[in-house]
Design a protein that fits this description.
The chain is an alpha/beta fold and about 260 residues long. The protein is built from 10 helices and 9 strands. β6 (about 160), α6 (about 170-185) and β7 (about 190-195) form a beta-alpha-beta unit. α4 packs antiparallel against α5 (about 140-155). It binds adenosine-5'-triphosphate (ATP).
């Protein structure tokens, strides 16, 4: 694995947001090495925001993410498909090879070992024969497979997936879930934002149910129980988008 010894990722009183407006409040928890964690919750709950922070793309407004010596560079991050530019003029092989960039640099050439790794990744996701195809000619499911092939080449110990199964068919979902189990069997940590609770129950032992704050974090079946889901919906509906400051911070300030 292209990574240092695994350490837990600790979220310490973590508050995240944009332009000082909090989107996720006071999150506490620990993601153990090798964990399979689903992040679920209503629209706008802060799921993608949390993933961006775990990927090192968003600095906390408060609190911290402790990585035990690892850096965000040791994380492979798959953004939501809407945020990916598939019109980029590149063929599938070169796109998958971009996963090797942290090892070889932006303009470094691929040696034989890296080329073999790229070919194997393409085969693993079932896209052999598509190597020369332009990215913008791939179907949605094929594009998702290509993105997973790039993650294989990245070879990181922590893999973050933002809604990896939107608009793809059952067969592709099954293949990609098999890949996720393989990653976990290799000791990698996988954190995935999921809207489909059945997939969370099937493939992710742990779930964080988020609605701007932590509603539940633990065994997936317990976290996604009816009572918690109802609470998440109510919290989300009650959230005041115009609130510029975190209410709990305000209260703490008044107490002191
Ligand atoms: N770049 C941004 N600038 C300002 N506000 C943002 C930005 N990105 C997200 N937000 C706001 O942060 C909050 C959380 O958004 P986020 O995308 O994390 O939610 P989500 O749980 O992933 O939602 P969904 O299920 O709809 O994808 C929302 O209120 C959103 O409008």
């Amino acid at each position: 694995m292209n990574a240092p010894a695994p350490a837990p990722i600790r979220l310490v009183n973590l508050t995240l947001g944009y332009d000082r407006r909090p989107a996720v409040h006071h999150l506490e928890g620990e993601i153990a090495p090798g964990a399979g964690l689903a992040v679920c919750g209503p629209n706008g709950a802060g799921k993608s925001t949390l993933l961006k922070a775990l990927a090192g793309l968003l600095a906390p407004l408060g609190g911290s993410i402790e990585r035990g010596g690892a850096s965000p560079r040791n994380v492979a991050y798959l953004p939501q498909i809407v945020d990916i530019d598939s019109a980029f003029p590149i063929n599938l092989r070169d796109f998958v090879a971009m996963g090797a960039m942290t090892r070889i640099g932006l303009f470094g050439g691929l040696d034989a070992a890296e080329r073999a790794r790229v070919a194997e990744a393409i085969e693993t996701v079932g896209l052999s024969g598509f190597e020369e195809r332009a990215l913008d000619t791939l179907s949605g499911g094929q594009m998702q497979r290509a993105l997973f092939a790039r993650l294989i080449v990245q070879d990181q110990s922590v893999i973050l997936l933002d809604e990896p199964f939107g608009a793809i068919d059952e067969a592709t979902i099954d293949d990609l879930l098999a890949l996720i189990s393989r990653w976990r069997a290799e000791g990698r940590t996988v954190v995935a934002v999921l809207h489909d609770f059945d997939i969370a129950r099937r493939a992710f032992p742990q779930t964080l149910l988020l609605a701007r704050e932590r509603i539940a974090w633990g065994d997936t079946r317990d976290a996604l129980c009816k009572a918690n889901l109802a609470r998440a919906r109510a919290m989300s509906a009650a959230f005041d988008e115009s609130a510029r400051e975190c209410l709990r911070d305000e209260e703490t300030r008044h107490v002191h």
